[in-house]
Write a structure and sequence with these properties.
Chain A has 221 residues and is mainly alpha-helical. Helix content of chain A is 47%, strand content 11%. In chain A, helix 5 packs across helix 6 and helix 9 packs across helix 10. Chain B has 98 residues and is mainly beta. The chains are: A mainly alpha (221), B mainly beta (98). The interface between A and B is medium-sized, with 22 and 25 residues.
């Protein structure tokens, strides 16, 4: 008996789908994804290298990209104005490559009056182009349900108390738009350089569950 | 739906979200169905995800809006503040004038 990897194993239909035993080892969803992938390759819709290239591209994206965009907006009012009105162009001008088929990005600004919180109640839509993969909690049923029903309670669990004077706006990205929060520039950062400001912009502050770090707290890290 | 549906609503218009749970892919969350809100943004038309999900790659376009709702009217026991809002992106064919 020749040893084959689950990827190469063929069933009686001749498709390169993993058989029942291999599927069991992989778990249901991994087996299903592998079956779909091999069908797409077999039908010539994609090539095996496309999947790897996409995975590499996704892994190359991180919240640092979003943080650079935010820090630039804090120091450059013209850039900020463009970021809020035409985010794709503004971000491309910073040197980021945004695929033409990516979902449209919208940047929403937190102010003294309004605080934004991002969720996708239907699945896990997320501004991956600027933040990379979403954190596990963002995809959890608990966050997706509670962020809309009890956003202030959820934020409290992240350590964020939103004043009653502030309007809390939840944005549910149900469709073709991905949202990025532009957090408020922390107080006491007027003298800081852009490169140092980048370090204050956390992933969670761009989802909206927490504010950006204050310079005092980041000095410890 | 026709190929090039014109946007029917403008920012500020009051709209009601239609209800229904057809046995197919939809992107209108159940919690917002039947609710009345205000058009905040008209983005543009996008390929209709409800037909895209079934292999349609044709020009079936659906205008998309950001619709703003008062949290206090969406949830009977909402614990937050009176000004709090929930904004949901909804395709035109799920909206009617209110």
């Amino acid at each position: 008996m020749t040893e084959k990897t689950p990827h190469q194993k063929s069933d009686s239909t001749g498709h390169g789908r993993p058989d029942a035993e291999a599927r069991e080892q992989l778990g249901y969803f991994a087996g299903r994804v592998m079956a779909m992938e091999s069908l797409l390759i077999e039908k010539g819709i994609i090539q095996g290298s496309d999947v790897q290239r996409m995975a590499d591209e996704i892994d190359s994206q991180s919240p640092t990209d979003g943080a650079r965009v935010v820090a630039r907006a804090w120091v450059d009012p013209d850039f900020k104005a463009r970021l809020l009105t035409d985010p794709m162009t503004a971000i491309r001008d910073l040197g980021y490559e945004l695929a033409s088929n990516m979902p449209r990005l919208e940047v929403v600004e937190n102010t003294e009056q309004v605080n934004h919180l991002i969720v996708c109640t239907l699945c896990s839509c997320y501004p991956r182009a600027l933040l990379g993969r979403p954190p596990q909690w963002y995809k959890s049923l608990a966050y997706r349900a509670r962020a809309v029903v009890d956003p202030r309670g959820v934020m409290k669990e992240f350590g964020t108390e939103v004043s009653e004077e502030v309007e809390l706006r939840v944005l549910d990205s149900t469709a073709d738009i991905r949202f990025l929060v532009l957090p408020q520039r922390p107080k006491g950062t007027e003298e800081m350089r852009e490169d140092d400001l980048v370090k204050l912009v956390t992933r969670d502050s761009m989802i909206g569950v927490t504010p950006a770090r204050s310079p005092a707290s980041s000095a410890v890290l | 739906m026709t190929d090039a549906e014109e946007p029917r609503f403008r920012p500020g218009d009051r709209v009601r979200v239609l209800t229904g749970t057809p046995p197919r892919h939809i992107r209108t969350p159940a919690f917002i169905q039947g609710q009345t809100g205000v058009i905040e943004v008209f983005y543009r038309a996008f390929k209709n995800p409800e037909s895209l999900a079934y292999g349609d790659s044709g020009p079936n376009m659906a205008p998309l809006y950001r619709v703003r709702f008062d949290q206090g009217t969406v949830w009977r026991d909402y614990q937050g503040c009176p000004n709090d809002k929930i904004c949901v992106d909804i395709y035109q064919h799920w909206l009617e004038p209110a």
